[in-house]
Design goal:
The chain has 2 domains: 207 residues, Rossmann fold (3-Layer(aba) Sandwich); 110 residues, Rossmann fold, CATH 3.40.50. Helices cover 33% and strands 23% of the residues. It is built from 13 helices and 19 strands. A 7-stranded mixed β-sheet has the order 8-7-6-9-10-13-12, with helices on both faces. A 6-stranded mixed β-sheet has the order 16-15-14-17-18-19.
Length: 420
């Protein structure tokens, strides 16, 4: 089987990122948007701001849902990238459980090497280290400094076959390689997979977690489409992708992180047998008509409905003199607010937890300031929009426990207003 191109340069793409087919159809055009995690300092508000096309595209051959414009990785994952996985309790707990589950499932001996691609602040690797594993992280941004400060060896670089060779030379081969919420992000996908081939031990496992397309469609998560997310995976194209390499998808199942993800296990060697769980997931996709054009037409129509509803609520609140503010500033809220058209006149601020690296910055595109969330309890605004709605229940419970009386707005999957 001839291997397609899997390494893409910045710019417009006219072919599928997995099978290279030119048979692509637009699902949803979200307009020109800035990279979602390129928050602006007050000084940068006076400078020009770069935006790029953001379109949700579907390959009608292999079924991959993707975007058709690659932004240079150095612009998306810039040195001052403000995302930290360790400050979100739900995510930190999830990573802790994942490390325990993988060591138990794989019967991984103590002192084995575990490598995390896109290791961020080292939260996941801390769990492996506590279990007696040798750990190495690969993280291109300055967030790596938090991992290093916690004693997690971290290579500050993008992962590639060259980096893989360096790790093998210094540490040997890895029993476990992880890539959580990052495998959909890489334009140099071929380099990454070739690196995994070289770094993974013969009896090792490569474990991916990413947003799952079926959740995106079922829960109307169009806000998870942004320039970091070059691909929104489902199992059929993901299995096809690894078939081009000396690797096999052997197991997969759904997990709750990020509003609905898949955890995928990849083993060394072609043609390895699939687990019943993987087969069931593929059957579930077929039953949900995940590869039918009509599914995406219905999705687009529902998105337009929720867009109009949220914008109307914001405008009506402003007209009545009511305070309409945001809570939490995940990357996905940039897509949501830029697409809906909610700016700082309609939403005067977004409240974030005191440990966030985004405090004092401004949302790209709409320039809404990000402030300490203590303001919510002092001001008690009329409406608080839950921009991290995919973690809506624990955040709601925390805000109510701390005394917030405002109406809470869940923007997706359908617009809901929750009174006290």
């Amino acid at each position: 089987m001839k291997r397609p191109i899997h390494d893409f340069e910045p710019g417009h793409l006219e072919m599928c990122q997995v099978c290279n087919s030119a048979r692509l159809e637009v699902v949803l055009d979200l307009g020109h948007q800035p990279p979602c995690d390129s928050l602006l300092t007050p000084a940068q508000l006076n400078e020009p701001e770069a935006t790029y096309p953001l379109r949700m595209i579907r390959c009608t051959d292999c079924g991959l849902v993707q975007i058709d414009h690659v932004v240079d990785g150095s612009k998306v994952y810039h040195q001052e990238y403000p995302y930290r996985s360790g400050i979100t309790k739900e995510l930190a707990d999830h990573h802790h459980r994942l490390s325990i589950d993988l060591v138990r499932r794989q019967h991984t001996p103590a002192d084995s090497l575990v490598v995390d691609i896109g290791s961020n602040d080292g939260t996941l690797l801390k769990g492996f280290k506590r279990q007696g594993m040798r750990v190495v992280g690969i993280e291109p941004t300055n967030v790596a400094r938090f991992a290093v400060a916690d004693g997690i060896e971290t290579i500050q670089s993008f992962f590639s076959d060259t980096v893989a060779d360096e790790i093998v030379k210094q540490h040997g081969k890895a029993k476990i390689i992880t890539a959580t919420n990052v495998f959909a992000h890489m334009a140099t996908l071929g380099q990454v997979i070739r690196g995994v081939e070289r770094l993974l031990d013969d009896d090792g496992v490569f474990v991916i977690e990413n947003h799952y397309l079926l959740n995106i469609i079922e829960q109307l998560q169009y806000d998870s489409i942004y320039h970091e997310h070059l691909r929104s995976y489902s199992m059929k194209p993901l299995v096809q992708l690894f078939d081009y390499y000396d690797l096999s998808v052997v197991d997969a199942y759904r997990v709750a992180s990020y509003g609905g993800s898949i955890r995928v296990y990849v083993a060394k060697g072609r043609g390895k047998p699939a687990s019943p769980s993987l087969s069931n997931l593929i059957a579930e996709e077929k039953q949900a008509k995940l590869y039918d054009t009509e599914t995406y037409t219905a999705f687009r129509n529902k998105v337009l409905q929720t867009k109009r509803g949220l914008y109307k609520l914001a405008v009506d609140a402003e007209r009545k003199g009511e305070r309409f503010v945001g809570n939490s500033c995940p990357g996905r809220c940039s897509t949501l607010l830029n697409y809906v058209g909610i700016d700082r006149e309609l939403m005067p601020y977004i409240a974030e937890q005191p440990t966030s690296l985004k405090l004092g910055l401004h949302l790209p595109g709409k320039h809404i300031p990000v402030v300490n969330n203590k303001i919510l309890f002092e001001e008690q605004p009329d409406y608080v929009v839950m921009l991290a709605w995919h973690y809506g229940q624990p955040i709601t419970e925390d805000l109510r426990r701390r005394g917030l009386k405002s109406k809470l707005v869940m923007p997706l999957p359908e617009l809901r207003i929750i009174s006290e």
